[in-house]
Specification:
This protein has helices spanning 5-25, 29-33, 44-63, 77-96, 117-141, 151-157; strands spanning 107-108, 114-115. The protein is mainly α. It has six helices and two strands; from the N terminus they run H-H-H-H-E-E-H-H.
C-alpha cells in the first residue's frame, strides 16, 4: 500500500467540516444564534465562523506564508461554505505531493515565531475536530441529531472498511 496518509487525513477533515456546515445550513437563524445550555462558549454561528476562518488562516499560512486580515463583518453561511470549500481544496492539493516545497520550509508567523508546516497541519485537523464536536454538542442540545463525522463512518463512505473475509 503506497497511499498518501496525510492526504487522506486532510480529505477526512474537509469532508467532516462540510458535514457540519451542511447541518448548520438546515438551522434557522434563531437556532444558529442561540447559545444552548452545553459545555461550550458561544453560538453555533460563532463557532462555525471561527472554525472556517481559522482554517482559511492556516491554509494561507501554509501556502502564502501570511494570515488573512480579520473580517470586519460576520460572513454569511453561503460565504462560509465558499471559504470552507476553497481552503479545504487548497489543503488537499497542498498535501497531495509530499515532496511539495511548501511543506519543507519553516513558516514565520506574524508574531515572529517560526513553525514547521506539519505543526500547522496538525492544528488544522485538531482545531477543526474540537469545534466540530462543540457544534455537534450544541446541535444535540437543540434536540437535533448531529451527523457522524468519525473516521469509521468516513471509511464506510469511501469504501475503505472491509468486512472479514473480503
Amino acid at each position: 500500500m503506497n497511499e498518501n496518509i496525510l492526504m487522506r487525513l486532510i480529505e477526512h477533515n474537509h469532508w467532516a467540516n462540510l458535514q457540519i456546515l451542511e447541518i448548520c445550513e438546515t438551522l434557522t437563524e434563531d437556532q444558529l444564534d442561540i447559545q444552548p445550555q452545553s459545555a461550550v462558549h458561544g453560538t453555533i454561528r460563532e463557532t462555525l465562523q471561527h472554525l472556517v476562518t481559522s482554517q482559511e488562516d492556516y491554509t494561507s499560512m501554509l501556502t502564502k506564508f501570511t494570515t488573512i486580515p480579520e473580517k470586519e463583518y460576520t460572513p454569511t453561511i453561503p460565504e462560509l461554505r465558499e471559504i470552507l470549500i476553497t481552503s479545504g481544496k487548497e489543503l488537499v492539493s497542498l498535501v497531495q505531493d509530499p515532496s511539495n516545497n511548501l511543506l519543507q520550509a519553516q513558516i514565520i508567523l506574524n508574531d515572529g515565531y517560526k513553525v514547521e508546516p506539519w505543526v500547522l497541519l496538525t492544528q488544522v485537523i485538531n482545531h477543526a475536530t474540537e469545534h466540530r464536536e462543540q457544534i455537534k454538542s450544541m446541535i444535540t442540545a437543540l434536540g437535533i441529531k448531529p451527523p457522524r463525522v468519525d473516521g469509521w463512518f468516513y471509511a464506510r463512505e469511501c469504501n475503505a472498511l472491509f468486512p472479514p473475509n473480503s
